[in-house]
């Protein structure tokens, strides 16, 4: 890798971070009275996870957080993005906080602060308590209220030392893949009937912002997964399909937060279950806007009898990651996406934080030597360069976060996809930094 050319393209003052999520790294699903989430049900059901794995032991960060923090300190990141497991804090998804569950995060926060790293937790990274799913999950308005109560408990427990919070991670993934097509927990296949889960997650975000601000939080925001959508051709059918996909993937989640209104969703034959006051709560100006970015999406019109009117197709003329042809590598599309957000939302757009960016490539399960992951280095360097281009174009980007610190449990793909800067042997939990870890460390050091 050409470090020198990369260094020229680093935006001055950008903060650096790396991310993980509770269910993907913690393991220890039965420890200390932890309750069950929809992901426990999903991984314990036969045939749901590609390699039959169940997230254990994996990185086992519940028992090895000290190792994670030592790695983060060595990396030199300003912040660490991790997530808090609702069912460790409230095993049943309601009621009093579990002292043992909170104690894990309490210590994690203290240890991060001792290491000079700002803790930046996500309050919800997909692990809904099963009891709430039984009552309708994110289809039920009540789940948003319950989330607000859980957030208040977390803030009571660690809010004296945590000032920066992500509320909900990628509501789009939960809606479309969790409730729409069933690829992620809870594995329901409701297609467009899943859309009320958008509103209830955004409402949950609104309740969380209110609860955290009441407690004195300094910075609160949602983190949406965005993709740059392009039509497969200039045909009217493809352009219409791409517009619908953009609405469904991007605008339906960004507009309410940033403008206080849903876009016109009549094409999907539904209206959001909005009540008076909801949109004011949802659009309380966030302190930052979190953007997770992996790839652009090329959309073609689907055949007339298809259940949905659009179809993702391979993006022409670009390389692909370990996930295959629907996951192209196209860094300029990140610049274009950030510019589009700025153009579309103008003053309503707060400073941007890149909450996740990264890639998985085939790598060995057992590391016998340092993994020379030059394709990951190239991916990260090019995307940081794309952020620099956006900053040059006048976009306010404050922070960049690599997904992920560690190889971890990649949801329905189990342990088959490796996104880490650090290799993890998923049976021994042994951690081995990859070449990309050194590269990121040197990059960060060069900016200090
Ligand atoms: C995010 O999901 C999640 O927040 C996170 O938990 C997850 O582990 C991470 O992305 C990685 O998947 O890197 O080009 O091979 C977003 C949905 C679906 C995006 C798979 C990345 C693979 C693209 N992810 N996709 S690539």
Automatic annotation (TrEMBL):
Reactions catalysed according to its record: Hydrolysis of terminal, non-reducing beta-D-glucosyl residues with release of beta-D-glucose
Superkingdom, taxonomy of origin: Bacteria
EC numbers: 3.2.1.21
SUPFAM superfamilies associated with the record: (Trans)glycosidases
Positions annotated as active site in the UniProt record: 170 (proton donor), 356 (nucleophile)
Biological processes annotated in GO: cellulose catabolic process
Keywords: Carbohydrate metabolism, Cellulose degradation, Glycosidase, Hydrolase, Polysaccharide degradation
Keyword Transferase: no
Transmembrane segments: none
Family the entry assigns: Belongs to the glycosyl hydrolase 1 family.
Name of the featured protein: Beta-glucosidase
């Amino acid at each position: 890798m050409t470090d020198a050319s990369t260094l020229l393209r680093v935006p001055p003052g950008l903060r650096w971070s790396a991310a993980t999520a509770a269910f993907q790294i913690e393991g220890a699903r039965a420890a200390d009275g932890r309750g069950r989430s929809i992901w426990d049900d999903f991984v314990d059901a036969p045939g749901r996870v590609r390699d039959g794995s169940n997230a254990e032991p994996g990185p086992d960060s519940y028992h090895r957080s000290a190792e994670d923090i030592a790695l983060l300190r060595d990396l030199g990141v300003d912040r660490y993005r991790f997530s808090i497991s609702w069912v460790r804090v409230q095993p049943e998804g309601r009621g009093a906080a579990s002292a043992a569950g909170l104690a894990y995060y309490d210590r994690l926060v203290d240890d991060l602060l001792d290491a000079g790293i700002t803790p930046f937790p996500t309050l919800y990274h997909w692990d809904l308590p099963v009891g709430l799913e039984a009552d309708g999950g994110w289809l039920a308005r009540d789940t948003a209220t319950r989330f607000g109560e859980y957030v208040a408990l977390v803030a009571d427990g660690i809010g004296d030392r945590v000032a920066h919070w992500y509320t909900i991670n990628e509501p789009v993934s939960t809606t479309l893949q969790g409730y729409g097509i069933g690829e992620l927990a809870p594995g329901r296949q409701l297609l467009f009937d899943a859309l009320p889960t958008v509103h209830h997650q955004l409402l949950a975000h609104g309740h969380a912002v209110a609860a955290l601000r009441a407690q004195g939080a300094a910075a609160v925001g949602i983190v949406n997964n965005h993709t740059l959508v392009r039509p497969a051709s200039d045909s009217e059918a493809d352009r219409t399909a791409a517009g619908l996909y953009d609405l469904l993937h991007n605008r339906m989640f960004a507009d309410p937060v940033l403008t206080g209104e849903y876009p016109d969703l009549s094409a999907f034959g539904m209206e959001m279950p909005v009540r008076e006051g909801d949109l004011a709560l949802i659009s309380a100006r966030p302190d930052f806007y979190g953007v997770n970015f992996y790839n652009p999406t090329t959309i073609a019109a689907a055949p007339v009898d298809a259940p949905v009117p659009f179809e993702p197709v391979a993006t022409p003329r670009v390389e692909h990651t370990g996930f295959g042809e629907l996951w192209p590598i196209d860094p300029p599309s990140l610049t274009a996406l950030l510019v589009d957000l700025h153009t579309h939302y103008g003053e309503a757009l707060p400073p941007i934080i890149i909450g996740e960016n990264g890639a998985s490539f085939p790598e060995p399960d057992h590391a016998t030597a340092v993994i020379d992951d030059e394709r990951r280095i190239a991916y990260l360097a090019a995307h940081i360069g794309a952020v620099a281009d956006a900053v040059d174009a006048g976009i306010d980007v404050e922070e960049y976060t690599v997904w992920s610190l560690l190889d971890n449990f990649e949801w329905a793909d189990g342990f088959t996809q490796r996104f880490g800067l650090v290799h993890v042997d998923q049976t021994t939990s042994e951690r081995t930094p990859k070449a990309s870890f050194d590269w990121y460390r040197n990059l960060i050091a060069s900016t200090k």
